[in-house]
Write a structure and sequence with these properties.
It is built from 18 helices and 23 strands. It is α+β, with helices and mostly antiparallel strands. A hairpin with a 7-residue loop joins strand 7 and strand 8. It is globular.
C-alpha cells in the first residue's frame, strides 16, 4: 500500500484496532522525553496527540536526537500496543504508540518566544504578538473550535425559526450612532469618506421596509472605542436579527429558544433558565442596583426607609427628611460577624464611599449588634430583620441618599457580599429579559430632556397619545417607557433590542422632545425617514453578541480568549503591526495630508 505524502492517519485517529498497521503521521513535536536513551515524542495536530517511540535500533534515531519542541515532522512506523502500565486513559489514542522507522523534518522551529506545552500564564503582549503560537495551546484552540460550533448552532436554529440570512454592506456612510466610526477615505471621491458599520442597524430596518420579513446575519461591527474586558476594541461579531409585524413578545418568543438552546447545547450540563423572566428596568435597579443583574446571586435589596425615619440614627433620619431620598438594605445571609461587617465597611471606603452602615445578628443578643442597632433600638432592628427574613448569623448593610446617585454603588456592594459569602451559584446560566427602559432622561449637564438609550425605539403608549404630549411636561415625559429590552446572562449584557419607531411623525416628535430640530433629524437620518414615508411595517429585533456568548460558555473572563486574532487594549494588532503608517504615495492618491499632533 502506498501511503499519502504526509499522513495515513491524523494524530487523534489511532486506536487498538490499528495495532500492527504501517502508519504515517505528520504534526508538531509537542513534547520530547528521553527515557534512558529511548526517545518519546508526543506528536500533535489539530485532531489530537499520538505517542511515538524511537530507540537506538531505529534507523531514524540519529535524526530524532536533533528534534526540538514545535518542529513539524513526518514519521513512518508501526502502530503497536503500549506496554502494560503505560497506557493513558486520558487520551483517545492512549492505548497505542508508533514505533518510528523514518522521520522527515517538514518545518524546523527556532527558539520559541513562549512555550506551547502546558497552559502557564504568559505576558499578554507576547501572547498577542505570537498569537499563532498561543493558538496551538490546547485551551485556546478548543475555545476557537467552540466558537465555530456555537455559530453553526445559532445559524441552524435561526434558519429553523424561519429567518433568512443576508449580508449588509461593510463600506457605508458615517452614522451618529453612539461610538466613533472607523473612516475609510475614498480615492475616487477626494475628501469624502466611507465608514465601517458600527452595526447593520439602518440596513436591517431597510430590509424590513423592503418586505423580507425575517432577517439575520452573523455581522461584524466596528467601533473606534476604548477596550473593556467584555468588549473587544475595534471589531466584534453579533447575531443580528430583525422581524416584521411583531410585538415585543413575538421577538422574545423567536429569540429565547435560540439563546436557551445554545446555552443548553454547549453549557456542559449547567442549568439554563427554562423561561427567561421579564424584569422591568426600574425593578432591576431597585432589587439589584443594575440593569445587568447576576441572578445567580440570591440577594435582593429592599427599601427600609420606614425603619430609619425619625430614628435615633441621626445621619439617616436627616437624609430621609429630603423628599425622594431613601435607605436601601443589602441583606447578607451568613455574614453575621463583626469581622465581615468591618471588611465590607473598609471595602466601601476603598470605593470612595464614607462607609457602609451595618447591623448583624448574633446568638443571645436581642435586636442585633453594631452601632446602628444601638442607635435605632431593638424594635426597629426587628422590623428590618422581619422585612428581609434575616435571622441569627446574618447581617445587613445600608446605603442612603438619592437612589439615582447611589444605586450603582449599592449594586456593587450586593455583588461583593455575594462573592465574599460564596452565595453566587457556579452551576447555572441565569438569563432574563430587562424590559420597560425609560424612553427619556434628564440631562443634568445640558439641563434638558434627552434620549436615555436608543432614539429609534417605539414608545410604550398609543401613537395618538404620544403625538399629543406637551413637550414642556417633563414629569410626564420622564415617566414614558420604550419598547426596549436587553438579554442578560449571569450579570453580562448579551444584547439590546427594541421594537423600532417606524412612524415618521412619531420619530419627529421623539426627537423634538429631546431638543433636536427636524432639519437635524433629516440631515442625519433622511434615508431612513424617506423609506418610512413609503410604507414601513412595524418591526423589531435584537443583536446578541457572539463573542460574549462564547466567553460565557467557555468560562473565560476576557473576550480575547475566544477571538482568533484580537487586538490589545490600545486597539493595536501586535502580530500584523496595525495600525501602521502608510507611504506618502498612498496618501497622495487619496488626496490626504496628515496634520499630526506635536509630540
Amino acid at each position: 500500500m502506498t501511503l499519502h505524502r504526509y499522513r495515513s492517519h491524523t494524530c487523534g485517529a489511532l486506536r487498538e484496532s490499528d495495532i500492527g498497521k504501517e502508519v504515517r503521521l505528520s504534526g508538531w513535536c509537542h513534547r520530547i522525553r528521553d527515557h534512558g536513551g529511548v526517545l518519546f515524542i508526543d506528536l500533535r495536530d489539530h485532531y489530537g496527540l499520538t505517542q511515538a517511540v524511537v530507540d537506538p535500533d531505529s534507523p531514524a534515531f540519529k535524526l530524532a536526537e536533533t528534534l526540538r519542541s514545535e518542529w513539524v515532522i513526518r514519521i513512518d512506523g508501526k502502530a503497536r500496543k503500549r506496554p502494560a502500565g503505560t497506557e493513558n486513559p486520558e487520551l483517545p489514542t492512549g492505548q497505542v504508540e508508533v514505533y518510528v522507522t523514518d522521520i522527515e523534518v517538514l518545518g524546523a522551529a527556532g527558539d520559541l518566544p513562549m512555550p506551547v506545552f502546558g497552559e502557564q500564564e504568559y505576558p499578554e503582549d507576547i501572547r498577542l504578538k505570537y498569537r499563532f503560537l498561543d493558538l496551538r495551546r490546547e485551551k485556546l484552540h478548543s475555545n476557537i473550535m467552540l466558537r465555530g460550533a456555537v455559530i453553526d448552532s445559532l445559524r441552524r436554529r435561526m434558519k429553523d425559526g424561519g429567518f433568512f440570512e443576508f449580508q449588509t454592506p461593510i463600506l457605508t456612510a458615517s452614522s451618529p450612532e453612539g461610538a466613533r466610526d472607523y473612516l475609510v477615505p475614498s480615492r475616487i471621491h477626494p475628501g469624502k469618506f466611507y465608514a465601517l458599520p458600527q452595526a447593520p442597524q439602518q440596513f436591517k430596518q431597510l430590509i424590513m421596509v423592503a418586505g423580507f420579513d425575517r432577517y439575520f446575519q452573523i455581522a461584524p461591527c466596528f467601533r473606534d472605542e476604548d477596550a473593556r474586558a467584555d468588549r473587544s476594541p475595534g471589531e466584534f461579531y453579533q447575531l443580528d436579527l430583525e422581524m416584521s409585524f411583531v410585538t415585543q413578545q413575538d421577538v422574545f418568543d423567536a429569540v429565547e429558544p435560540v439563546i436557551r438552546g445554545v446555552f443548553e447545547e454547549f453549557g456542559k450540563g449547567k442549568k439554563v433558565t427554562p423561561k427567561f423572566p421579564l424584569i422591568p428596568y426600574a425593578e432591576a435597579i431597585r432589587k439589584y442596583g443594575s440593569d445587568k443583574p447576576d441572578l445567580r446571586n440570591p440577594i435582593e435589596m429592599q427599601d427600609v426607609s420606614a425603619a430609619f425615619k425619625d430614628s435615633g440614627f441621626k445621619i439617616f433620619a436627616r437624609i430621609l427628611e429630603t423628599e425622594g431620598n431613601a435607605v436601601w438594605a443589602i441583606p447578607a445571609p451568613t455574614g453575621g460577624n463583626r469581622a465581615f461587617a468591618d471588611r465590607m465597611n473598609s471595602w466601601a471606603q476603598g470605593e470612595g464611599q464614607p462607609g457602609l452602615g451595618y447591623i448583624f445578628w448574633r446568638e443571645g443578643e436581642e435586636g442585633g449588634a453594631g452601632p446602628l442597632a444601638k442607635n435605632i433600638g431593638p424594635e426597629r432592628t426587628k422590623m428590618i430583620a422581619d422585612q428581609l427574613g434575616l435571622k441569627v448569623g446574618d447581617a445587613c448593610f445600608f446605603v442612603a441618599g438619592k437612589p439615582k446617585d447611589f444605586y450603582k454603588f449599592a449594586g456593587a456592594a450586593r455583588t461583593k457580599v455575594g462573592q465574599e459569602l460564596n452565595l453566587i451559584a457556579q452551576d447555572r446560566f441565569d438569563l432574563c429579559w430587562i424590559v420597560d427602559f425609560p424612553m427619556f432622561e434628564w440631562s443634568e449637564e445640558e439641563k434638558k430632556i434627552d434620549f436615555s438609550h436608543n432614539p429609534f425605539s417605539m414608545p410604550n403608549m398609543a401613537v395618538e397619545e404620544f403625538l399629543a404630549l406637551d413637550a414642556s411636561d417633563s414629569e410626564k415625559l420622564l415617566s414614558i417607557n420604550a419598547f426596549q429590552y436587553d438579554i442578560v446572562c449571569n450579570g453580562t449584557e448579551l444584547s439590546s433590542g427594541a421594537i423600532r419607531n417606524h412612524r415618521p411623525e412619531v420619530m419627529e416628535k421623539a426627537f423634538a422632545i429631546a431638543g433636536y430640530p427636524k432639519e437635524v433629524l433629516e440631515a442625519k437620518f433622511g434615508g431612513m425617514l424617506s423609506a418610512f414615508r413609503l410604507g414601513a411595517p412595524p418591526h423589531g429585533g435584537i443583536a446578541p453578541g457572539i463573542d460574549r456568548i462564547v466567553m460565557l460558555l467557555a468560562g473565560e473572563e476576557n473576550l480575547r480568549e475566544v477571538v482568533l486574532f484580537p487586538m490589545n487594549q490600545k486597539a493595536e494588532d501586535l502580530m500584523m503591526g496595525a495600525p501602521s503608517e502608510v507611504l506618502p504615495k498612498q496618501l497622495k492618491e487619496l488626496s490626504l495630508r496628515l496634520d499630526l499632533p506635536k509630540k
